Amino acid sequence: MADHLKLKDNPATLKLLSSFSAGNEVLVFSGYVDKINAYGKSQKRVLIITDRGLYNVDNSKCKRRIDLQSIAKIVRSATGYQFVLNVPEEYDYLYESSHMADICQIIATNYQVQGGQPLEVKVVDAKDLKPYVMTKKEAKKMNKDIESLRSSMAAMNTKGGEIDRARTNTVTHFSENKEQVELEDFDLLRVLGKGSFGKVMLVRYRKNGAVYAMKVLKKDSVIQRKQLEHTMTERQILQAVQHPFLVGLRYAFQTEAKLYLVLDYLNGGELFFHLKQAKRFSEDRARFYTCEILLAVGHLHSLGIVYRDMKPENLLLDAQGHIHVSDFGLAKQDITDNSSAKTFCGTPEYLAPEVLSGKGHGRAVDWWSLGTLLFEMLAGLPPFYDRNVSNMYKKILNDKLVFPPHFSATAQDLLARLLERNPERRLGSSPKDAEEIKAHAFFKDVKWDDVLNKRIPVPFVPTVRKEQDEPRTKDASNFSQSAEDVGNFDKTFTEEVVRDTMAEPLSNGPKEGNLFDGFTFVQESKLK
């Protein structure tokens, strides 16, 4: 917590927060800032940031509260102390503060914690950020122009009735065998997880009884939270990559209101689930998982893809105990160096120093995250973990790496090289990429071809309910089949009533109509 003004327990502050959220918000920052208005005039303000909102306070009176989830982007100076909050529903806010870096990190972190998706943080060289600000007057004019354009297009669409009616149908795609899929082709069995945009459900394909994980995203949430690029990138990567240790995409389809990704179901559960139960892994078990992850991430890098979201929650086990890397929403395509990407994104515990500093990043961030993950598997906690996110960021940037006594010498050496703060000196940062890491002594006895072909004995086989003798029924509550077992997933979700809730379709504006073109996909049949 960066409570510079000591306001956490201040009665006036508590009353202020209670008036907006019934006391449910947690203060994470307080400090003085200069708010710069449309005329360039600087106004001294107290800035209070909670885990859910931002308060602009003047003389103990709240002049403005901004919900963190309404912020679309932060623009911050690389050479000065100014930053801009882009709030599409209102207008932009320009601030200046010596705490600028901390403020931007705190906002971005709590935005992601609450919403599940990263907030774009753009770093620019300019000291004066006024050219990046949309004023209240400009925002009002733009919104008026947009509404006028939408009204015109809506009138045009009513003349093309056949085209307009077609948009209400499920959009599907055909493979070589002319297979068509839509929501009605699947039985909804269980909820596996939920996020800010939708949920993941266990489903059964009625045509052949195959069981999949269906990720459902609400289009309006994707657009409102400025996650269109991340969503389409995930869809493109899922189709493009095929690897033994990457989750596979089977189908993608959409309706007017939602997007559906039908993925391989890995009933062994999240690595997070098993690490939580075991507290920590043996070195052999941790090495086994690291080998499979290393091959998966190396394959992504060979395609110019930086993963950027490595954490135990995104690593799934199949029934045999092998790793499958999932969730490519934060991945970045066409990256071949260590500095091209600029977005502040990822999970706090696994963020590389170059992401925190905003200097640009590339493939090497994945190797920092791999080092963090390996450390956590061996120790039970990430190397720089702190319950206070601001303190954790400071530790990532500055603290000495300290190893528990049970770490082997080769594990310590590998981790020291992966958790090198300079990305240019980090193991794996050279053009050799994953090959450089594979050559380390920690992996000296590993036969990589056997790893790729799953010929290495697994150190742990997840407990998956076995098939029973009774015949399969069409009742979604029948979970006698091992393929449908959800015992390795959080009961908080799996015991929920499963349903695909209604959602409002997007408007017929020209922009929304084409945003999700190219999303639909059906895997080609392998049968000849």
UniProtKB/TrEMBL annotation:
Keyword match Iron: no
Residues given in the record as ATP binding sites: 215
EC code: 2.7.11.1
Protein name: non-specific serine/threonine protein kinase
Organism: Klebsormidium nitens
GO MF, one annotated term: protein serine kinase activity
Spans traversing the lipid bilayer: none
Listed CDD domains: STKc_AGC
Highest taxon of source: Eukaryota
Span of domain AGC-kinase C-terminal: 444-528
Broad enzyme group: transferase
Gene3D superfamilies referenced in this protein's UniProt entry, alphabetically: Phosphorylase Kinase, domain 1 (3.30.200.20), Transferase(Phosphotransferase) domain 1 (1.10.510.10)
InterPro entries associated with the record: AGC-kinase_C, Kinase-like_dom_sf, Myosin_TH1, Pkinase_C, Prot_kinase_dom, Protein_kinase_ATP_BS, Ser/Thr_kinase_AS, STKc_AGC
Residues of the TH1 domain: 1-169
Domain Protein kinase: 186-443
